[in-house]
């Protein structure tokens, strides 16, 4: 399976193991091509960037956290944790929350504006 980040070519294994981390920062884009199935057993950290899987089902048994854009053209099966935090997050593709999978969306509370 291939991937590109900032125009550089590279390879990304079909499996992100439990000790692995994929991190996509603000303004960054990681494009994962090829393969028919992708497993995330580790951590995917979105810190404002875009992670796109162009084909194949993405199965999450680990964690996906942060904010940014996740594109799963072949769909996403969640058996792990998806924790979306304050900021804009877009998920493109069918999402199935299976088994004990959890999806949590949280935001920092807004302070009331001072009128004094």
Notes on the protein architecture:
- The chain has one domain.
- 0% of the residues lie in helices and 57% in strands.
- The strands form 2 sheets. Strands 1, 2, 4, 5, 7, 9, 11, 12 and 14 form a 9-stranded mixed β-sheet that branches. Strands 3-6-8-10-13 form a 5-stranded parallel β-sheet, with no helix packed on it.
- It has strands at residues 2-5, 8-11, 15-16, 21-25, 29-33, 37-40, 43-53, 57-60, 63-72, 76-78, 81-84, 90-92, 95-97, 102-105.
- The model is unreliable at 1-7 (pLDDT under 50).
- It is built from no helices and 14 strands.
- A hairpin with a 2-residue loop joins strand 1 and strand 2 (8-11).
- With 116 residues, it is mostly beta strands.
Task: Produce the secondary structure layout.
Blueprint: E1 2-5, E2 8-11, E3 15-16, E4 21-25, E5 29-33, E6 37-40, E7 43-53, E8 57-60, E9 63-72, E10 76-78, E11 81-84, E12 90-92, E13 95-97, E14 102-105
Parallel strand pairs: 3-6, 4-7, 5-7, 6-8, 7-9, 8-10, 9-11, 9-12, 10-13, 11-14
Antiparallel strand pairs: 1-2, 1-5
């Amino acid at each position: 399976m291939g991937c590109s980040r900032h125009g550089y070519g590279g390879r990304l294994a079909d499996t992100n193991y439990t000790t692995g981390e994929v991190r996509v920062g603000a303004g960054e884009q990681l494009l994962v091509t090829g393969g028919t199935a992708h497993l995330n057993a580790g951590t995917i950290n979105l810190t404002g960037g875009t992670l796109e899987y162009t084909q194949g089902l993405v199965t999450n048994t680990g964690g996906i956290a942060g904010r940014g854009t996740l594109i799963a053209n072949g769909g996403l099966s969640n058996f792990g944790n998806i924790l979306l935090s304050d900021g804009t997050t877009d998920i493109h593709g069918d999402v199935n929350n299976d088994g004990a999978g959890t999806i949590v969306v949280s935001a920092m509370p807004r302070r009331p504006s001072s009128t004094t």
